[in-house]
Amino acid sequence: MNNKITNNIKQRLSLRKPLADALDVVARLVGQLDINNRPSGDAYSDYLKEQLQRVQYVCPQCKDFERNFPSFAFSIATGIGKTRLMGACMAYLYLAKGIKHFMVLAPNLTLYEKLMKDFGDPSYEKYVFKGISEFVHNEPYIITGENYNMARSLFSENQIQINIFNISKFNKDSKVGKKGAPKMRRLSEYLGQSYFDYLASLDDLVILMDEAHRYHADASKKAINELKPILGLEMTATPIDEKNKTFKNIVYEYNLAQALADGKYVKIPTVAKRRNFERKGMSDDELDKLKIEDAISIHEHTKRHLEMYAKNNNLPVVKPFILIVCKSIQHATDTYNLIKNEMFDGRYADKTLQIDSSTKKDEEIEEQFVSLEKPDNKIEIVIHVNMLKEGWDVNNLYTIVPLRAADAPILVEQQIGRGLRLPYGGKRTGDADVDKLTVIAHENFEAVIEKSKDPNSVLSKLSYVELDDEDVSSAQGKVVKAETKLDFQEQQEIQKAKTEYEKKNAKAVFDAKRAVWTVIPKLSSTVKNAQELANPETINVIKNLTCNEIIKRSKEVNPLFADEYAKPLLEEVDNVVKIVVKFFIDNIIEIPRMTIQKEAYKAEYKWFDLDTRMGYDLPALRDEILRVSIGVGEKTTEILQVIDGRKFEPPVNQIVNALIDYDEIDYDEASELLFHLAEQAVDAILNNLDNKDDIAKVVNQFKKAIASNIFDQMQRHFVMTPLGYLKPKVLPFAGIIEQHFVETEGYGRVDYRDIVKPGLVKKYIFTGFLKSYYTECKFDSKTELDFANVLETDTDVLKWLRPASNQFNIYWCNGSRRYEPDFIVETKDCIYMVETKAAKDLSTDDVQAKKKAAEEYCKNATEYTSANGGKPWRYHLLRHDIVDRNKSFEYLMTLS
Fold first, then answer.
1. For the chain, what is the total number of helices (H) and then of strands (E)?
2. Which helix (H) or strand (E) holds 95?
3. Residue 227: which of 207, 249, 247 has the closest Cα?
4. Are strands 873-879 and 831-837 parallel, antiparallel or unpaired?
5. What are the C-alpha distances in Å from 317 to residues 146, 422, 712, 739?
6. DSSP character for 706?
7. Phi/psi at 92 (nearest 5 deg)?
8. Angle formed at CA 774 by CA 490 and CA 470, multiple of 5 degrees
9. Could you give the residue ranges of the DSSP H alpha helices within 463-561?
10. What is the pLDDT of residues 568-611, one digit of tens each?
11. In this structure, how many other beta carbons lie within 10 angstroms of the beta carbon of residue 183?
C-alpha cells in the first residue's frame, strides 16, 4: 500500500529521481518507527534507543538521532529541490499515516517568506502541492508567525495544519520581552495555554527543518526538543554542525558532486579566463575592469542564446544576470561607480544593483533584488559583499565574477552553488549556452585548476575555457528571425505599394495568409498527405479555422478594437486560402510528425532451477520459553516447552509471500517462477528433514533466510532485453517552425555564394537561397556552407531545409537529449536526412547513438509515406573531407 502511495506522489509531483529516492527512504524509515506508542517519563529513553535500532536495520549509517526524538537528515545539493521533497514528505505522512500537524522551520526572514509562498499559495508557480488532489479538496491551513494567535480553525478535525516559523519566534533565548518570554510562549486566552505549549501537546507533530545545519546550536536544539515532535526531517546541503562535525543522522545523500556527475539537474559549471592573460604589471583596478569586461562579453553571448532558445521553443525568455563578488563595501561601491560612469558607455548604468549592508534597507533595491527572476526586472549586474544567505533562490544567474579573492578556489567552491539552478523545469535542455554557468577567474585560473585535481572538491567537475580576444570583441549582436519565402513575398508586395492605403491592404492580405499558414498544420490528423489539403471539403475546414484564428489574434493584438482589426483580414480569407494551400504544398518538405523516444527494455527474471546445495539443510527448532527468577533469594533459570497449536500457511505460499516483500520483484510478472523456485526449495528442505510433518513449521522459522537465498539467485538471472524504440504515432506532416539565430555585430548578411574564411563562417548569416523555405541560414562550419551550395545548384535537389532546433522530436541518450539534423533534402524519389560530421568523429558513441535514433525516425517515416503515396526517407552521415562545392548530391550520397 505504501509503495502505491509513494509512487503516486512521485508521479503527481513529477519528482526528480534523487527526490524520489529520498521519499522512498522516508517511507522505509517511517515504516520501522513506532510513532503511535510513545511512552513518557523514564521509559522514553529506552523507547528512543529501540527506535534507533529499528532504523539501523534498514539504514545502518544512521548513528544517532542527534535530538530527543527520531530525526533524519537529508543531505541534498542546492538546486535539486529540498522544498519539494518536504512537500512530498508531508503528503506521504498524511496519506499513509494520517498525520495532520506539521511545522516547517526557517533560519532567516528570506527563507521564511519563501516557504510561506511555497506551501501556502496555490496560485504560485512553485507551489509544492500541485497535483496532490487530496490537498486540493482539503487545502492545508497555513499558520505563521503573523497569524498563529488568530488561527480560529486550529482544532478542525480533518484539516492539515502547516506551521511555518522562523526559529527565533519560539527560541527562549531570543526576543525576551517585558513579560520574560517570546510571545509564542505566553498564555493565549483563546487556547488556554501558550501556542508553544499547544504545539508540544500534539501527538502527531512532525518538524521539517530547512537549512538544518542552522539548528544544531544548543539554544535552537533545546527549543526544538521541547516541542516533543514524533518525527524530524532535516534538509541541508551542508550537513555539518557548529563544531564542524558531520551529522550522525544522515539517511540520504545527493551532494553537489553527485549532481554534477549526473549532469541532469544543475548547470554545467565552467571557469574561464582570457587567453594569453598576464597578471604582471596590471593593477588591481585594471584587473577588475578586465574581468568585468569579459564577464559582460559572456553575459551578452548567454543572453542572446537564451532569447534564441526561448523563441525557437515557444518558451518564456529568461533574463540572465551577473554576480560580482567584492571584498568590502567600499570595493563594491567603487565597482558600482566604475560600471555606472566609466564602462560600456553607461549601457549598464541603470541595470546594476549594489546589495550590501549599506543598501539593504533601501526598499527599491530590496524589491529589485528579490525579483531578479522576473522578465520585467531590468537588473543584469548584481554587486554584493557577503549578503547572499540561504534562501536566495534564483535560476537566472549565469556569470560569477570573484574580484580580489584571497583564496579563489575556496570562494569559487562557496559561490558556485548560487548559480547552478536551471531555469527550464529544473533540467538541462541540451543547449550548452542555456545550461552553462561561467565563473571568471583570470588571475586564479591555475589555482582553481590545481584545486580541481582534488577528487573531493566540487571543482573536479568543472570545465575550463580560455577566451580568445576575438570571442570577447564579437560579443555584441542580436537575435533575429530567419527570413522565409512568405516573408520575402510580403516585403516585395509592400515595396510595390505606392500609397499608404495600398500598403495597408497588402499588410491585411499577408496577415490573412499567415493565419492560413498557421492553421494548416492542424489538419495533419485529418488528411493522409499534404496533397489532400487541396480537397474542397478540407479547404472549407481551413477557411473556418482561419477565421477563428484571425478573431483570436485580433483580441490578443488589440482587445479594444478587435472587430475593427479583424474585419479586413476576414474579408481576404476566401481569396487567399487556396493560394496559401498551394504555396504550402509547393514549398514545404513533408516531414512526418512523430516522437522518437528512448528505447524500450523488458526487465525480467529468466527461468532457472534453484541451486539447493547450500542453505536448505534446516533443523526444526524447538519453541521454548526462558523463565528467570528476579526476586530475592536463590536465582533460577528454567526452559519450558511450548505446546504448539499454531497452524501455518502452506510452506510454498510462505516462501512466495516472503519473496514479494522485495521491491524489485513484481508478482504479476514473476509469479510462475516464484512458485517454481519455492516448490524446489520446499522439496530440498523436505529431503533433509527427519520428520516431514515439521515442514511448514521449519519454513516459518527460516522463511526470511530462504527468501534471501532465492532472491540472490534470482538477481543472477535478471536480464534487461532491448525491445527497440516504441512504435510512434505518425501524422503526415508538421508545420515549418519559426527559426531564430544571432546576427553578430560587425558581420551581418552575405550571399551564400561568396567565399568566406572558414573561421568566420559561424559569424555570418547567408542569404539568397531559392530551394529552401528559409531564404537565409546560419552554418556551424565551412562543410555545411559548401553542402548548402551543392543543394542549391544540383538539379536533382527539389527542396532542402536546414531545420529549426525543435523541428523534429527525435530523442537520444536514453531520451534525455533532442537530436537536431543538419539538413533535410528532397529529390524526385527520396527524402534524405543528412548529418555532416568530421571524419574522426563518425565512430564516436554520441554520433552513433544519434544515428540510431535518426534511422528509427526514417524507418517509421518510410512506413507511413509508402502506405500514403509519399517518398521514402533515408539517413546519411556525410564525412566532412569529401564535401566540395563541385560535387553532385548523388555522388555525395553514394559515399559513406
1. 26, 32
2. helix 82-97
3. 207
4. parallel
5. 36, 13, 52, 15
6. H
7. -65, -50
8. 115
9. 469-473, 485-496, 500-519, 536-557
10. 889 999 999 999 999 999 999 999 999 988 777 777 899 999 99
11. 17
